[in-house]
Amino acid sequence: MATKRRPAPTPADAAAVPLARTALPDEVQAHLEHLRFGKRLAERTLSMYHDALVRLVAFAAEAERPLTDVQPFHVRRWAAQLHGSGLGPRSIAIHLAAWRSLYQHWGRDGRVRLNPVEGVRAPKGAKPLPKALSVDHAVALAELQREPPPPSRAIDESRHAALEARDQAIVELLYGCGLRVAELIGLDMTPVADSRGWLDLDSGEAHVLGKGSKRRSVPVAGSALQAVQRWRLQRAVLAADGEQALFVSLRGTRLSDGQLRVRLAQRAQAAGLPTGVHPHMLRHSYASHLLQSSGDLRAVQELLGHAQISTTQVYTKLDFQHLAQVYDAAHPRAKKR
Asked: What domains lie within the chain, and their CATH numbers?
């Protein structure tokens, strides 16, 4: 008995259904797999592209138009619908980037003759300045020492101590090296085949795979090196046998983006910081504090791994007057040896 093909979701359905659970047609899913393994896009980017492609499939189904026969006027109309539904310029730009990537891939394979997304631009929106912590808040977060909780079945004192050592090392690397979340959780204990990154404790450098699969090396602050060494001494309490990841969860496997965000938010709350602290805020803090002290825009661009200097220049627009005036070197955490 032939199975009935499930109808594609409409745009309204796509907005109501959890997009991560919505299946894509095989030919679109194959493109996502190409981005995952061929282009090595970050998981967060892949998740956003998946959601964007779900909506593209829904729009095309509603218009009764095969994906391979979509025209530029369709894309413009659908972008306008996204804007009308409340999506901001940045979200629409991500949608268009995902759609453009699909048709570029299909164009190379000869599936389509033109890219209907080429030339379509998202509406311009105000560029918000990145939010950075003050120096005092960043240092308080890095130096926080939390007392162990009462003994329980879920976690004993040794596991709590390991988690605290891990979390402190994470904060030190995010703030002391300006790493992206994907770069940090991709670190391995040692460089292995297909390793996304690792720490060279002897040279004091972090080797990471950034956006666009570009590798870079950044110096690791002395306090961060000490924190990582303390964590490595306790890592065996949590890590599963054979696990290569530097940072692992309670389950013993590589720490995920979501797990890191939850732990950082809890740590920020315990340190008395303002709400809404997230990993990228520590990267912003790294860049802002370093640029404030050094004034060397090109050097900060290299350390952050920005392809364009204009991306780094946004930090020059921040109001540095409210930041603590305790800097007497390029970075406050770098002085600890």
From this structure: 11-108 (1.10.150.130), 135-335 (1.10.443.10)
- State the catalytic residue, choosing from 283, 289, 331, 333: 283
Residue 152 pLDDT greater than 70, yes or no: no
pLDDT in tens, 121-147: 888 876 666 788 888 899 899 888 877
**From 65-74, 236-245, 258-267, 325-334, the region with the lowest mean pLDDT:** 325-334
Least Cα distance to 289 among 90, 130, 60 occurs for: 130
Q: At what angle do helices 72-84 and 43-62 cross, to 10 degrees?
A: 110
Closest CA to 257 of 176, 169, 184: 184
Candidate list 49, 103, 286, 315, residue with the active-site label? 315
CB within 8 A of 278, min separation 6: which ones?
261, 264, 265
Tell me if 205 sits within 8 A of 215, measured CB to CB. no
Contacts of 187 (CB under 8 A, 6+ apart): 196, 197, 198, 199, 206, 208, 245, 246, 247
Catalytic residue selected from 159, 306, 327, 336: 306
- Residue listed under structure tokens 């299946």: 23
Which position has the higher pLDDT, 332 or 15? Answer: 332
Query: Does residue 306 carry a catalytic annotation?
Result: yes
Token duo for residue 297: 């825009």
